[in-house]
Design a protein that fits this description.
Blueprint: H1 12-20, H2 25-34, H3 41-44, H4 56-68, H5 79-116
Helix pairs in contact: 2-4
Length: 127
């Protein structure tokens, strides 16, 4: 049985908004690049009480085109792919940090062992 991939909490509202408002991965990516909040999508999409509003997907597309001068992002990634890349990047950073800490601890141990036995050094080694 395959292990279920963990999705960080900061991506969960985007997944919920994609399902609730029936948006595509491209619309979600455009909204994220625009800096929109998924919590506010209900306000943007309220076309029953305010019929003059444009449907949410068209609203996002219009704002994206105004801001960036193109209709869609060059590379469209799903939220799950973005989350997987985020988790992998964090794991890589953590591994680098641990390896750097191990190198430092080895260097400190080496210095400590050299400082403990100064009588083993030749008399002119300190000059």
């Amino acid at each position: 049985m395959a292990k279920k991939q963990r999705i960080p909490h900061k991506f969960l509202p985007w997944i919920d908004a994609r399902k609730k408002f029936r948006l595509s991965n491209a619309h979600i990516q455009m909204a994220r690049e625009l800096g929109l909040s998924p919590k506010r999508f209900g306000v943007y999409a309220d076309t029953t009480d305010q019929p003059w509003k444009v449907p949410l997907p068209q609203f996002i597309e219009n704002q994206y085109e105004k801001q960036f001068g193109k209709e869609r992002p060059d590379v469209v990634m799903s939220i799950e792919e973005i989350a997987a890349a985020h988790v992998a990047k964090r794991a890589q950073r953590k591994a680098e940090k641990l390896s750097k800490a191990e190198k430092l601890s080895k260097a400190e141990k080496l210095k400590a062992s050299q400082n403990e036995s100064p009588q083993d050094l030749p008399p002119n080694a300190s000059e």
